[in-house]
Every structure is written in structure tokens, then in C-alpha cells.
């Protein structure tokens, strides 16, 4: 399964390099591609900034080649342009050489070329960045970031890695970033997303057919990629599923309550909280629409109508939780595991992974970075969130939601989605319990694990955005889920 048909597909710099080469093989010259890329940036600048002195900083590779095109485009339209070029001309590509000749003689670099500009164009490094920015280039980046002039970055802000969004050494803070053909993961992953400013995507003559050969596996999370369960007028509440949320003990019941309410708001037909009698007393004083049961989980699950489970929020790291998790996995229901359901297996992750691999693959895990690091000790987060989540999904057999301001959802089949709609105020205590409930509620309605996880993360972000600003607490979120679902539908 791969994302070859969508505008929302994301390409790593390596995959983008293949798209360039395949296009060139198919008859579009590199000169044409570079010309289209540079003109697209030039056009963006003319449309978005007032005419004023602009300095174009051109690096040693084809990103710099784009800069020559931009310089010519703006000069032709009467902009005062200064252009500097770094690197050895003997190593230029034919296309870069072609456009350098059109430009003429670049100036020798001096700091006032940056200091005196009203607008900077960063065409130092793009897809070819492969090591930390250091030395003279680091000084240039620092100076560019210190000036008040906005910077338009070509393809990627210099210093941001296109595949991971991580900063190599130091990076340009751009006002806008213009990229080509398809966005790159680094435009959505942090800190890259913040360094890009506004991201604009432009087409440069690469046919989307090349994606069939590249078979990209990563996509920007968006309602176009999944279908929410449809409301059926004649539908019975059981046709919308019955989700069981496992409660924590007395004194720790709030998390399960938040998950249960969220599952119901996400459209689950029925939601039952299962827990010990003392815990149910606490729930009973708060809840009306949620049912309460105090049987052992294995007995409760003899009733086939319970088709989805949420285990973990507020459950506590205990033998009881450990066994509830294994019971839930063995029941082969749609299952969401969060928080303590994961924490219970830190010293024994193989047990949970092996159990999941025996199921029909309907399990979602929602670790934040800390939980992820403890459960997946052999997976390096520093190699990038997408690759880490993908590896964890493969190891565990579960769909992984690696939570954060740039949550990544990855499937054991290799697909991954990057979410970018979460507002900063969503980072609040209990917001993970709400996410767990939304995903569990969607699973109860029959959405398969990966789609439910992607949709849940998106709706969670939208719900928080609809709150509108700081001051939101997690209990505000469940009632915002229905309107978020309506927008995402
Ligand atoms: N291909 C196409 O058809 C099209 C491509 N397009 C454009 O090309 C861009 C990709 O071009 P690219 O592959 O030449 O990479 P680019 O980012 O210019 O840098 C490579 C150079 O940087 C160097 N270098 C790397 N890191 C460094 C560091 N930290 N510090 C110092 N040096 C460092 C590296 O040096 P080397 O490793 O050889 O020493 C090499 O010389 C892409 O982003 C898009 O803008 C568009 O025109 C559309 C058509
Ligand atoms: K750049």
C-alpha cells in the first residue's frame, strides 16, 4: 500500500531526488525543472512582498541554481537584486551553470549584503544538506536570522533536514518556504515546521505518475485520507459499536471518565466503564450516559457486543493492569492501549509485542515521547519521528501514535502520517485520555486501526483549535468533538 495518488503525499529528499531523475529520464530537462522552480519562487515573492532591495544567497548545489533563476526573475521585473554565490563553479551542475551565466557576475560576499537587504532569499542548501551547517555558513545563517528582513527559503530553510525536520548545526528562520512537487516531512515535523514559516507548494513539471515508481509511504494527515463512520438514520445504537473503557482504581478514575465521554462523543453507540466497585461509585456521581460494570474483564468480554476497548488511562502500573492488557489483546477486539497499559511492559516489552502479533492487527498504541523511549528502547528517536514510529509499529505489530505537537501515526504495513493541526494549548493534562477515547470510539464504529488513529488525532487537534486559545483544559474537549467531526467529515 502506498500513497502515489495524493497531493498530500510527502517525499523525503531522497525520494524527491528520484522524482527529479525519473522526470529527467522521461524527457523534462534539468534546466526546465530548475527554471520552473526558480520562477515559481520569484512569482511567490512578487505576489507576497513589496518591491524592495533583495539579496539572494546561492549555495554550491542546485538549491543555489534555483537562486540564480530567482535573481534573474526579480531583476527582470525591476527589483534591486544583489546576488552572492558560494562553492566551486567547476562542480556546478549544467543547469546551475546555465542560469549562473544568465545572471552574470555574482558579488563577493560581505555582511552588508545581508544587513542592507529588505528581503533575503535563502537558496544556500535544500535537499542536499547532509551534514551540520558550520563555519562561514553558520555565520551567514546567524546574521540572516538577526536582521529584520524576512527570508524566503527555497525548498527547505537552510539547516533543516528534509526527512526529519531536525536542525543540522543551525538553521534559517524563514518567513515563507516554497517547495516543489510534493511537501517533505521536514515541512511538518518540528522544529522544521516552525522554521519554514508559511509553506507553499508549487508544481514544476514533474508528472504525478513518477510516484507509482517511487511508492511513497508517508502522507500529511488530512480528512481526504480516511472516511469517518457515516451516521445512518435507521441505525441501531449497537451498529455503532460498544466501547469498553477500563477504569483506574478509586481515587484515579478521572482519566477513564474523560476517555469514555470522548468515545461517546466520537460516535460510539454505547460506552461502558469497567472497574472495581469502589471506582464505579466515583464514576456514578459524575456520569449519566455511560454504563458501569464491575466484572472481571475476561468475563465481561464473553459478551460479543463489546467490540472495542480502551485500556490504560489512569489505570496504574499494577498486576491488574498488566493482566487486563493481555486479556484485552487476547480477546481480539479493536483495542487502544495508552499510558499505564504501555508503562506496565517497560521491562518486558516482548510479551506485549508477541501477544499483539497473534491478533488480527486491530491494536493502536498512543505513547508520548517518554513512554515511547521506555517501551521501544532499541528505537532511536534521534533518527527522526517518522522512522522511529514506523520501526516501533513493525516491532510491536500495533499502529503507533507517537504523540506530540507533530504527532506521527505509523502502521506495521509501513504507512505513516504526520499531523500538524494541534494548537499549542492542546498540551494539557488529560488531553491524551481524550485522544484515547476518540480513537477507541472510532474503532468501535468499525474504522480500522490506522484510519481510526489518523482520524482521531486530527479530530483531537481540530477540537482543541475550536476552543480558540489558551486556558483550555482537557474536560473542555469532549463536547468539542462533535463539531470537529462535522468539519472533518
Ligand atoms: N535535481 C533537480 O532536478 C532539481 C532540484 N532542485 C533544487 O535543487 C536542490 C537540491 O540540489 P542538490 O542536490 O544539489 O542539493 P543542495 O541542497 O543544493 O546542496 C548540495 C551541496 O551542498 C553541499 N553541502 C551539503 N551540506 C552541506 C553543509 N552542511 N555545509 C556545506 N556544504 C554542504 C554539498 O557539498 P558536498 O557534499 O558535495 O561537499 C553539495 O555541493 C533542491 O533543494 C531544489 O532547490 C530544483 O531546481 C528542481 C530541480
Ligand atoms: K534553502
UniProtKB/TrEMBL annotation:
Keywords: ATP-binding, Isomerase, Lyase, Metal-binding, Multifunctional enzyme, NAD, NADP, Nucleotide-binding, Potassium
Catalytic reactions on record: (6R)-NADPHX = (6S)-NADPHX; (6S)-NADHX + ADP = AMP + phosphate + NADH + H(+); (6R)-NADHX = (6S)-NADHX; (6S)-NADPHX + ADP = AMP + phosphate + NADPH + H(+)
Residues that hold K(+) according to the record: 63, 122, 158
Cofactor descriptive note: Binds 1 potassium ion per subunit.
Keyword check for Lyase: yes
Family: Belongs to the NnrE/AIBP family.
Name assigned to this protein: Bifunctional NAD(P)H-hydrate repair enzyme
Organism of this sequence: Maritalea porphyrae
Amino acid at each position: 500500500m502506498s500513497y502515489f495518488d495524493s497531493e498530500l503525499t510527502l517525499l523525503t529528499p531522497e525520494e524527491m531526488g528520484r522524482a527529479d531523475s525519473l522526470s529527467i529520464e522521461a524527457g523534462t530537462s534539468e534546466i526546465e525543472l530548475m527554471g520552473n522552480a526558480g520562477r515559481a519562487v520569484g512569482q511567490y515573492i512578487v505576489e507576497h512582498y513589496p518591491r524592495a532591495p533583495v539579496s539572494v544567497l546561492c549555495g554550491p548545489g542546485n538549491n543555489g541554481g534555483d537562486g540564480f533563476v530567482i535573481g534573474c526573475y526579480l531583476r527582470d521585473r525591476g527589483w534591486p537584486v544583489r546576488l552572492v554565490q558560494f562553492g566551486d563553479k567547476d562542480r556546478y551542475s549544467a543547469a546551475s551553470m546555465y542560469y549562473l551565466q544568465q545572471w552574470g557576475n555574482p558579488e563577493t560576499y560581505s555582511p552588508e549584503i545581508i544587513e542592507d537587504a529588505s528581503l533575503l532569499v535563502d537558496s544556500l542548501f535544500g535537499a542536499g544538506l547532509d551534514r551540520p551547517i558550520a563555519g562561514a555558513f553558520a555565520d551567514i545563517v546567524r546574521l540572516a536570522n538577526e536582521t529584520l528582513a524576512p527570508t524566503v527559503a527555497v525548498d527547505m530553510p537552510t539547516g533543516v533536514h528534509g526527512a526529519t525536520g531536525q536542525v543540522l548545526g543551525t538553521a534559517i528562520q524563514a518567513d515563507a518556504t516554497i517547495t516543489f512537487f510534493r511537501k517533505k516531512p521536514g515541512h511538518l515535523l518540528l522544529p522544521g515546521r516552525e522554521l519554514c514559516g508559511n509553506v507553499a507548494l508549487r508544481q514544476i513539471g514533474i508528472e504525478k505518475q513518477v510516484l507509482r515508481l517511487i511508492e511513497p509511504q508517508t502522507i500529511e494527515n488530512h480528512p481526504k485520507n480516511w472516511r469517518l463512520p457515516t451516521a445512518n438514520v435507521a441505525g441501531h445504537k449497537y451498529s455503532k459499536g460498544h466501547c469498553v473503557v477500563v477504569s483506574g482504581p478509586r481515587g484515579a478514575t478521572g482519566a477513564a471518565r474523560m476517555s469514555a465521554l470522548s468515545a461517546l462523543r466520537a460516535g460510539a453507540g454505547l460506552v461502558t466503564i469497567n472497574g472495581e466497585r469502589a471506582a464505579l461509585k466515583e464514576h456514578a456521581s459524575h456520569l449519566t450516559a455511560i454504563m458501569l460494570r464491575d466484572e472481571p474483564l475476561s468475563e465481561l468480554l464473553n459478551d460479543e457486543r463489546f467490540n472495542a476497548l480502551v485500556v490504560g488511562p489512569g489505570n496504574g502500573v499494577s498486576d491488574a493492569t498488566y493482566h487486563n492488557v493481555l486479556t484485552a489483546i487476547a480477546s481480539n477486539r479493536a483495542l487502544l492501549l495508552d499510558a499505564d497499559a504501555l508503562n506496565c511492559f517497560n521491562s518486558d516489552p516482548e510479551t506485549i509485542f508477541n501477544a499483539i502479533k497473534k491478533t488480527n492487527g486491530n491494536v493502536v498504541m498512543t505513547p508520548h515521547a517518554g513512554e515511547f523511549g521506555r517501551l521501544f528502547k532499541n528505537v532511536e528517536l534521534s533518527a527522526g519521528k517518522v522512522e522511529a514510529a514506523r520501526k516501533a509499529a513493525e516491532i510491536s505489530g500495533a499502529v503507533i501514535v507517537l504523540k506530540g505537537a507533530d504527532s506521527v501515526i505509523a502502521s506495521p504495513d509501513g504507512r505513516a502520517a504526520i499531523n500538524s493541526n494541534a494548537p499549542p494549548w492542546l498540551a494539557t493534562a488529560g488531553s491524551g485520555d481524550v485522544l484515547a477515547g476518540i480513537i477507541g470510539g472510532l474503532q468501535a464504529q468499525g474504522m480500522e486501526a490506522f484510519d481510526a488513529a489518523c482520524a482521531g488525532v486530527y479530530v483531537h487537534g481540530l477540537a482543541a483549535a475550536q476552543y480558540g486559545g489558551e486556558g483550555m483544559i482537557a474536560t473542555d474537549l469532549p463536547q468539542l468533538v462533535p463539531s470537529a467531526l462535522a468539519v472533518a467529515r
